[in-house]
Amino acid sequence: MSSAKERLCQNCDMFLRPADLAFGDRNQDSHVASHTTVMIDCRWIGFTGIGKVTDLLLDGLHELSPPGRWILWGPEPIAERCWPGARWVMSSVSPLAWAGQRELLRVPNADQKLFLHAVRPMLGRNCDVLIHDTIPIRWDERFSHRIAKRVLYTASARLARSVFVQSSATEKRVRADLGVIPCRIVTLPSDSRRDGYIKDLRRKLSVDPLTMIYVGRVRPHKNIVRALIAYGDSGFRRAGGKFVVVGADRRGQDSIASTVRRIGSDGVTIVPRCSDEELERIYATAGLLIQPSLEEGYGFSVVEALKVGIPVCCSDIDPMNEIARGYAELFDPWSISSITAAIDSTARRAADGVEVLAPPTPTPREFAQEMLEALAAARS
Can you tell me the distance from the alpha carbon of 285 to that of 212, in angstroms, rounded to the nearest whole number? Predict the structure, then answer.
């Protein structure tokens, strides 16, 4: 895998020597100069998706303990994640408040500011932003919200010095939807962190091959209605298979309940948003996982399931086919018959105890190292 520095240079059709990436004197093993102050927006810790990325980055940076001065801006639990040279600055306000502008005037001062979501205080100078996807500007159910989010995401990307993404699919969408030129985009690796503990749980607990799970929000682009209809048509359901939908908010629960009543399919259980401990136990006992999305920025649940040995069926779309091809059963998310066939095929693998292989993913240390290189390349 090429480094973040090399990928940015390739996009810009230029070459930078390693010395060009320094911001003054730098340590041999670091990409952050000793007198540089870098602020990381850690307010997303605890959120799904972006919370996992924040957690992964902080774990990796704590392990690397990079030189320079670092500011971790976020809620009280972030105080325990500091390493020598890093200090915590308190924020108790949701990063979503006022469309991300509530703390515009309270952003800690730093030579470089890293925001881990497109919804952020609209600062431009020395700011870099990680954009996970542009799904809200197309899939929000209200037209006015889609327009507002398009304006917000476009401003966030264009005001930033560099835009970091985690898949080639998101890179394409950032270029097409937000008008960001290629030389300002860096693609980072990603990972999930639950695998070791869940593997242990799966050895201790009884895995139920007749339980299929979906983990995530219930929104139009998640395609749950087609998955429910396909489940109702499946041999898996007729054999007693259950479908557990995990993570739905009240609106999502109402949507699922309405669909189940309409198609008359039994065996569906809704588990609202739950704690990490509860979610780990659900993963530990699941027989298979389905991810039927029409669009995704990455596909965390697919990676999590494969890494702990859960058979997976998922949409044949970018970036999930990049992650899961050769490891999971892929299907056409627009075709109910294709989804049904994939459910039944994956359920047979689960019942037969077929070994599940997982795609290679970076460690927290490797992810943090990539981020350090990306930050250095952005400064250059």
Answer: 10
User: Pairing between strand 329-331 and 86-90?
Assistant: unpaired
Contact 129, 188 (CB under 8 A): no
Rounded CA-CA distance 298/293 in Å is 11
The CA distances from residue 365 to 61, 64, 92, 180, 249, in Å, are: 7, 7, 28, 29, 33
What SS3 state is found at 322?
helix
Q: Which residues contact 258 (CB under 8 A, 6 or more apart)?
A: none
Cα separation, 35 vs 21, in Å, equals: 14
- Is residue 238 within 8 Å of residue 266, measured between CB atoms? no
DSSP 3-state of 164: strand
Residue with tokens 């990490």: 276
Residue with tokens 């049904």: 340
What order of strands is seen across the sheet that includes strand 86-90?
86-90, 69-74, 37-41, 112-115, 127-130, 162-165, 185-187
Q: Averaged over 148-174, what is the pLDDT? A: 94
Please give the C-alpha separations between residue 18 and each of 21, 284, 365, in angstroms, as whole numbers: 5, 45, 20
- Rounded to two decimals, the pTM is 0.81
Task: Answer whether 48's CB lies under 8 Å from 42's CB.
Answer: no
List pLDDT tens digits, range 253-295: 998 998 888 887 789 999 988 888 888 899 999 999 999 999 9
CA 34, CA 69: separation in Å to the nearest integer?
7
Tell me 230's DSSP state.
H
Domains in the chain: ranges and CATH: 4-191+362-379 (3.40.50.2000), 195-352 (3.40.50.2000)
